[in-house]
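A note on notation is needed here, since sequence and fold are reported together in a single record. The reader may check this reading against the record printed directly beneath this paragraph.
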Amino acid sequence: MGRLDGQAALVTGAGRGIGEAIARKLAGEGAAVVVADIDKAPAEQVAGEIVELGGRAIALAGDVAAVDFGERAVETMVESFGGVDIIVNNAGYIWNTTIQNTTDEQWYAMMDVHSTAPFRILRAASGFIREAAKRESAEGRVRHRKVVNVSSVSGIYGAATQLAYSAAKASMVGITRTLAKEWGRYAVNVNCVAFGFIETRLTQPYADEIPSIELGERSFKVGLDPMTVAMMEELTPLGRPGTVEEGAGAVYLLCTPESDYISGQVVVCGGGLLL
């Protein structure tokens, strides 16, 4: 039996990277997972592979920044798996530049995906959570639900050329601590994982040509040059970047019954990195 048997989970940005690893980890522990991603193909591939391994999963394609995404995601959880037990707000990307070159479009894009999207998902889930908690209380039982918001060391310490990204990720700390106070009465544990140097396509090393990712009609430069990689490894006490599986492990810890009395906390998953 898995540690999360009978629970329904939503993981955003789950078609690749840390999100994919989180979805696979939760499913491997028995949770039924809504694999949400902006790109349909990777979401369906991850969900399909989970099912092939005997798990339960369904793909949900869509932009988390869309106004209706939160409602769609919660409806999918309830209709497909009968409830809302775990929400992992993981989706995001980077769009870096110095403040003088940061446009309003860039600022709001970072806020939309890293701050507004989680807010809308959590607001959409609030009705189900409140009613379920009241019903369970009347029956004399308690069911802990988990929210894990994903931030970054950039949101805690700041990072040059990441003003908009850092501000948006910092907002996740405020959302986490506020909602922990609001939803404690409903037995919901709300915590945050701030990632450090984790190996993903956003931090991939490059030698010559800077890699990019495509999101809709836009292309975004990503990756790190060898000098930056070396610096990050030197600043990280464990001396290396983390794997996506290690990142998923940090999120998983806050989804288990062992975290039932942990709420409003920010856990840095960064190998000791303190910028």
User: Anything to note?
Assistant: The mean pLDDT is 94.
